[in-house]
Amino acid sequence: MLLPAGALPRAVAVLSFSVLLSSRGAAQRRPAPSNLSASCWSRPHPVNMFNSYHVKFQHSKALTSPYPGSHIERSQVPEDKVGWLTEWEDYNPVEYTAKSVLAGPSWADPQINHEGFSPKFNERDGEVERKSLNGLYVVENGRPRNPVGRTGLTGRGLLGRWGPNHAADPVVTRWKRDGSGNKVAHPVSGKNILQFVAIKRRDCGEWLAFPEFQEEALNSLEKSPEEKAKLEKQLQKLFSQDHFVVYRGYVDDPRNTDNAWMETEAVNYHDETGETMDNLPLEAGDDAGVVKWVDISEKLELYASHSYFIKLVTEKRGAHWSEDPGSEYHE
């Protein structure tokens, strides 16, 4: 779901869930989940960057072809040519913006040369946040430039905004408990085991830590208005509990282009007693094949950077991560 950056963490995540109760075509939200299936793609060309939280990030899925939802092939970008500081006079990226974006929905910008369109990049532009969570970005020939580097494709692809497209992603956790309600400690590390809500995408079989909670984890699209209202009330109770920002910055996403890219603020919402989530039965919906509580440990195999974000949560909560004491909370 697309939201203005810079909002308070609680407000960002509360909106990210409650807005999902409205129609799928609402403005300021993620592209349809069918486009998110591209998270299953390979990551062949790692290029390092750091966000404001000093998290090492890789620019790789943004180099894959074909582009999601199309037959468009990106121009190939060698690993040593990704960075903009490397001169490449022969760089000839493919221009592509999806018809669904060009149709002019409320969540999308017009084309750069459209009459009357004068975006204010690197600042708040009316109701649109065009600041990047990673700082200032270059604007060249009227177009913003991807801060990580070349992608082999210009235009916006499936993304609505020129420049950063902001999202808010929740990580929902609780303590693992036994039949008597006591916290369960790991037999080796002695630390309590943390669990999080994970979904397994039906289209690719990959586990994700950031579900679109209402639609994918609670199947809200199939609920009655009364059931949706009850869900929203319970979620608001969850969001009022302890939380912290796990990550803020650039997202290596297969929809990214040279001129449009995804950024996120991932927030951990923790149900300390477990009582709130006990009243929210998990039910796979939308594109989710399986949704369940998963024990957190270093053995997890999650999509892309999700494992690292989950590790940060265990560090903050003082929970179990590794059976090797020497590797606890260290790279």
UniProtKB/TrEMBL annotation:
<comment type="similarity">
    <text>Belongs to the Nudix hydrolase family. NudF subfamily.</text>
</comment>
<comment type="subunit">
    <text>Monomer. Interacts with GLOD4.</text>
</comment>
<feature type="signal peptide">
    <location>
        <begin position="1"/>
        <end position="27"/>
    </location>
</feature>
<protein>
    <recommendedName>
        <fullName>ADP-ribose pyrophosphatase, mitochondrial</fullName>
        <ecNumber>3.6.1.13</ecNumber>
    </recommendedName>
</protein>
<dbReference type="InterPro" id="IPR039989">
    <property type="entry name" value="NUDT9"/>
</dbReference>
<dbReference type="Pfam" id="PF25969">
    <property type="entry name" value="NUDT9_N"/>
</dbReference>
<dbReference type="GO" id="GO:0005739">
    <property type="term" value="C:mitochondrion"/>
</dbReference>
<comment type="function">
    <text>Hydrolyzes ADP-ribose (ADPR) to AMP and ribose 5'-phosphate.</text>
</comment>
<keyword id="KW-0732">Signal</keyword>
<dbReference type="GO" id="GO:0047631">
    <property type="term" value="F:ADP-ribose diphosphatase activity"/>
</dbReference>
<dbReference type="InterPro" id="IPR015797">
    <property type="entry name" value="NUDIX_hydrolase-like_dom_sf"/>
</dbReference>
